[in-house]
Amino acid sequence: MPPSDHALLGASSSKRWLNCPPSARLGEGLPDTPSGYAAAGTLAHAIAELKVRKYIEPMSTRSYNSQMKKLKADEHYDKGMDAATDAYLEHIKALAMSYGAVQPFIVPETKVDFSDYVPEGFGTADCIVAAPPRMCVVDYKNGAGVLVEAENNAQMMLYALGALKTYYPIYGDSIQEIHLSIVQPNAGGIREWNTTVEALRKWGETVVKPAAALAWEGKGDFAPGDWCRFCRARAQCSARARQMLELSEAPVAGQPFDGALYTDEQLGGILTRGRALAAWIKDVETYALSAALSGRQIGGYKVVEGRGSRDWAGGADAAFAQLQSRGVAEAMLYERKPVSVAALEKSMGKKEFADTAGDLVIKQPGKPALVPESDPRKPYTPAEAAFEAVTPDG
Ligand code: SF4
């Protein structure tokens, strides 16, 4: 199963509390926003774990099929999970093969304890592959969001510190190298990073321990940053509000607000600020609506009913039966629509879709979008997009 990281200083929230230690206690007791993707992620992790267990443990095909059938009966299952978790299994196999003649120890879904560095610190690593002198820590992410880098990834580094402690009775000091990898098939690939046990422990002592001690005590300096997105206090936090309001008032690249036209370079700065402000206001609006709906008074605001929509009383089937009995032709009641490429691929699964329909698909160029320069996608060029539009999707 995926990490059930409910510790105050959990690994999955470590980027936030390492950067802004008082956020841990400030957000304690505040409601968390449930993610609509959590249930699908939990299921995909369970499928991934079963595949790894089948690879490393004696398991009859009958037992495997029966367990898989139960998982696939889940309402959140979609065939895309098969290809994604296959990619995860292939990565684990490749790591195991990288040890050559040595058969490494492989353990999926293992609880790791990094409380030597973080009070009550624990987490669940998706998979550990180890044989001296190298330990690999693997994470699976099912989401199709932003690709997460493995390099200096605090969550993965804490898992590695925990795994070193957990398996110390077996390996002692014979593990010297650490390999971290994040398998994210739906977000575009695998990210890997190598470090050493020495560097990891130094980071644990000099960076993690002091920040974790402050966070545990609710002390330290508030430091707003992109990690605020995952903070329970993100809507109410005055430190974030101060940063946002200062951002909105500060001159752009030293240009006074004197009516002169901004340069394109300066407008880039406006966009960057505006996006941060828009994300903050969205958080505040979401919070305020939820608070008002629960009966609290948001200064100067009230809740009204939005624009409603009409629906068939008693359901479409019953209403349509009535309408046909009143002489309305069936052809007026139902539309025949072609299924989209994405919908058919989802219902068939990636592989079957590629075999059956791959040669019938062309890629239409996506609508150009403005993104920060740090975005990993290559820049858009109209000529290339036109070429891709007439090339069958391979
Ligand atoms: S919203 Fe940002 S600045 Fe405020 S406590 Fe949370 S992480 Fe820190």
Residue-averaged pLDDT, rounded? 91
Distance between the termini: 34 Å
- Provide the structure class: alpha+beta
Q: What is the CATH class of the largest domain?
A: Alpha Beta
The small-molecule ligands in this entry are: iron/sulfur cluster
Radius of gyration: 26 Å
Which strand-content bin applies to the residues?
Answer: 5-15%
What is the share of helical residues?
Answer: 40-55%
Unreliable stretches (pLDDT < 50, length at least 5) are 1-5
Helix and strand pattern = HHHHHEEEHHEEHHHHHHHH
Count of discrete alpha- or pi-helical segments spanning 4 or more residues? 15
**Going across the major beta sheet, what is the strand order?**
1-2-3-4-5
DSSP E strands, number: 5
CATH fold descriptor of the largest domain: Lambda Exonuclease, Chain A
Largest sheet: 5 strands, mixed
CATH architecture of the largest domain: Alpha-Beta Complex
What is the number of independent domains? 3
Shape estimate: globular
Keywords:
disordered N terminus, alpha+beta, globular, 15 helices, 394 residues, binds iron/sulfur cluster
What does it look like?
Residues 1-5 have low confidence and may be disordered. This protein has a 5-stranded mixed beta sheet. The longest helix is centred in the C-terminal third of the chain and has 30 residues, at 264-293. The protein is built from 15 helices and 5 strands. It is of the alpha+beta class and 394 residues long. It is globular and about 80 Å long. The protein has 3 domains: 14-217, Alpha-Beta Complex (Lambda Exonuclease, Chain A), CATH 3.90.320; 235-255 and 264-293; 336-370 and 378-394, no CATH class. Strand 4 and strand 5 form a beta hairpin. Helix 9 packs antiparallel against helix 10. The chain starts with 13 loop residues before the first helix and ends in a 5-residue tail after the last helix. The structure holds iron/sulfur cluster.
